């Protein structure tokens, strides 16, 4: 008895991947094995970078806070230690935003912490 192959399902699986790789460069969009590999690798990068994005943003906020605090004669570590000691519950994201977009409010926070 000849081997039976479900070609309908196989073709559907391939079409699904090829549809997802639409817009890729050269053979990544239309050669099945290349498209499958590039799509799988892309999914891995997406998973990894959803976590790395959080690290990168935290590092950016710290750099912005550090730059703003140094204008007031403090270092980042001194500032964060003092802000926790004074019980000011503002996270780094908000502090970085204040430092960039509202320097007067940030200066008031620094003044409060310096006392």
Q: How would you describe this structure in keywords?
A:
5 helices; mainly alpha
Question: How are the elements arranged and paired?
Answer:
Elements (H helix, E strand, L loop, with lengths): L6 H14 L11 H39 L5 H10 L6 H10 L1 H12 L1
Task: Output the radius of gyration.
Answer: 26 Å
CATH fold assignment of the domain at 67-115: c-terminal domain of poly(a) binding protein
CATH class wording of the domain at 67-115: Mainly Alpha
- CATH homologous superfamily caption of the domain at 67-115: Ribosomal protein L20, C-terminal domain
Rounded average pLDDT:
95
Shape: rod-shaped
Helicity level: over 70%
User: What is the CATH-assigned architecture of the domain at 67-115?
Assistant: Orthogonal Bundle
- With helices defined by DSSP (H or I, 4 residues minimum), what is the helix count? 5
Give the DSSP E fraction (strand runs of 2 or more residues). Answer: under 5%
Structural class: mainly alpha
Largest sheet: none
Order of helices and strands: HHHHH
């Amino acid at each position: 008895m000849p081997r039976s192959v479900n070609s309908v399902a196989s073709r559907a699986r391939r079409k699904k991947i090829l549809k997802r790789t639409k817009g890729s460069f050269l053979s990544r969009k239309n050669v099945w094995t290349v498209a499958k590999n590039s799509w799988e690798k892309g999914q891995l990068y997406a998973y990894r970078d959803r976590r790395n994005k959080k690290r990168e943003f935290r590092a950016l906020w710290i750099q912005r806070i550090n730059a703003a605090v140094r204008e007031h004669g403090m270092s980042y570590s001194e500032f964060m230690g003092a802000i926790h000691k004074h019980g000011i519950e503002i996270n780094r994201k908000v502090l970085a935003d204040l430092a960039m977009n509202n320097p007067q409010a940030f200066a008031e926070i620094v003044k409060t912490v310096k006392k």
